[in-house]
């Protein structure tokens, strides 16, 4: 088969890009493991180091604030210095910060380490989405995004299994050290493996042609400040603002929900949480695969992404009944389905910046939108706490969790009826 026929048929020619995707997956898993260590060890640390609940709350807030701030300049770093150096810098910062936790003995010390961790970890998604834009054609990007995004669920599963074992056998300090050093190990593989796609010695001419088979993009820069003028930027940002807090709600409040609703203690909560995150893992890949499949079937990029996201938004809605049932298995199934749909949604939402902006601006666009999403997460966690304190009921929270995606989809569609690649002088409709 001639090369042009291969490109037209969508048949993959070479597979090195999937090795790069595997590195993105492992980086995302490490990212989520590192951020969970403190939460898993919090009861022990509070007892041993005499923290109050307010001290712990401020330590968590330090991470959230830094995470929101970090997205802005980390996205710009990725675009200015390139994926190889930018990603390496982010992983190095968060890995060192993770290890530094082991030397902290006061709330202030942990707060400083947590702030540094948030700054570094903010680089993961701008870098990973940018790498996907550079290494994958449009028809494969949501699948690649879904695969690396599934690393977040794997991290959420692995951390509760590994961290307690390390802490019990070697002390809590080593839980921070060993998980932090895993990022350094990843960094060695990254620097040994990654080169820009157009000069990579292990990418064949046929695979390079396949990766670059989309219409050519302009090479001129889009100033960072100009990104705030585009509706596409705000469409992505508002969708993140409304949907990111929902994942944060599950991430931080599920153990408390299962304890208050079903009486599950720490020694019994592991299996339900694992089932839920396995379902979310599958959702990442199914959501990414579906829109890629529809594009290969001849659908437009806009229609493929939006139909997949709309299906995900509707799939979330039954989660309200998790707060109304007395059956643990039903609650786990409903919440698992909601997280399945959330990850399917996110696989496509994170792909949109690479659809709507040239590759050299993708990191910055992701950074801006993710900052807005992180701010939404901070407000969401605070609001959830006040609602629970005043109502002692999870029903209102699950109503919001079940409806936020439909509202986000409507706003996204109104701002971008057609997905367009934003350029300085024109828009290209996809």
UniProtKB/TrEMBL annotation:
Please tell me where this protein is predominantly located: membrane
Question: Record keywords: Transmembrane helix included?
Answer: yes
Q: Which residues form the Major facilitator superfamily (MFS) profile domain?
A: 20-420
Q: Which domain of life is it from?
A: Bacteria
Q: Which UniProt keywords apply?
A: Membrane, Transmembrane, Transmembrane helix
InterPro entries from the UniProt entry = MFS, MFS_dom, MFS_Na/Anion_cotransporter, MFS_trans_sf
Gene3D superfamilies the record matches: MFS general substrate transporter like domains (1.20.1250.20)
Protein's recorded name? MFS transporter
Q: Which organism is it from?
A: Chryseolinea lacunae
């Amino acid at each position: 088969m001639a090369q042009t026929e291969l490109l037209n048929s969508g048949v993959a020619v070479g597979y090195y890009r999937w090795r790069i995707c595997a590195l993105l997956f492992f980086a995302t898993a490490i990212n989520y493991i590192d951020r969970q260590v403190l939460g898993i060890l919090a009861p022990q640390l509070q007892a041993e180091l005499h923290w109050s609940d307010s001290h712990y709350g401020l330590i968590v807030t330090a991470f959230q604030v830094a995470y929101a701030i970090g997205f802005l300049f980390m996205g710009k770093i990725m675009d200015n210095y390139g994926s190889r150096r930018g990603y390496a810098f982010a992983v190095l910062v968060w890995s060192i910060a993770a290890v530094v936790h082991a030397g902290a003995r006061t709330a202030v010390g942990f707060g400083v380490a947590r702030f540094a961790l948030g700054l570094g970890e903010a680089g993961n998604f701008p870098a990973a989405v940018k790498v996907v834009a550079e290494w994958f054609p449009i028809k494969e990007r949501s699948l690649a995004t879904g695969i690396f995004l599934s690393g977040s669920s794997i991290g959420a599963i692995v951390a509760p299994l590994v961290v307690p074992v390390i802490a019990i056998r070697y002390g809590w300090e080593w839980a921070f050290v060993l998980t932090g050093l895993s990022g350094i190990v990843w960094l060695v593989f990254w620097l040994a493996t990654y080169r820009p796609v157009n000069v990579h010695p292990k990418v064949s001419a046929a695979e390079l042609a396949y990766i670059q088979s989309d219409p050519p993009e302009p090479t001129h820069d889009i100033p960072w400040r100009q990104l705030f003028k585009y509706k596409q930027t705000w469409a992505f940002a508002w969708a993140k603002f409304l949907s990111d807090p929902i994942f944060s709600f599950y991430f931080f409040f599920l153990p408390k929900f299962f304890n208050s609703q079903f009486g599950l203690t720490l020694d019994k909560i592991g299996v339900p949480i694992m089932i839920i995150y396995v379902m979310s893992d599958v959702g990442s890949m199914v959501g990414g695969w579906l829109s890629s499949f529809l594009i290969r079937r001849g659908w437009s990029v806009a229609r493929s992404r939006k139909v997949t996201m709309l299906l995900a938004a509707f799939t979330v809605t039954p989660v309200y009944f998790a707060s109304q049932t007395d059956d643990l298995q039903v609650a786990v199934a409903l919440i698992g389905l909601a997280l399945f749909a959330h990850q399917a949604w996110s696989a496509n939402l994170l792909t949109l910046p690479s659809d709507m902006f040239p590759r050299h601006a993708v990191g910055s666009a992701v950074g801006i939108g993710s900052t807005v999403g992180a701010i939404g997460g901070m407000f969401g966690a605070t609001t959830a706490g006040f609602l629970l304190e005043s109502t002692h009921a999870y029903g209102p929270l699950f109503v919001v969790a079940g409806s936020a995606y439909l509202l986000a989809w409507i706003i996204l569609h109104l701002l971008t009826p057609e997905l367009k690649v934003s350029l300085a002088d024109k828009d290209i409709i996809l």
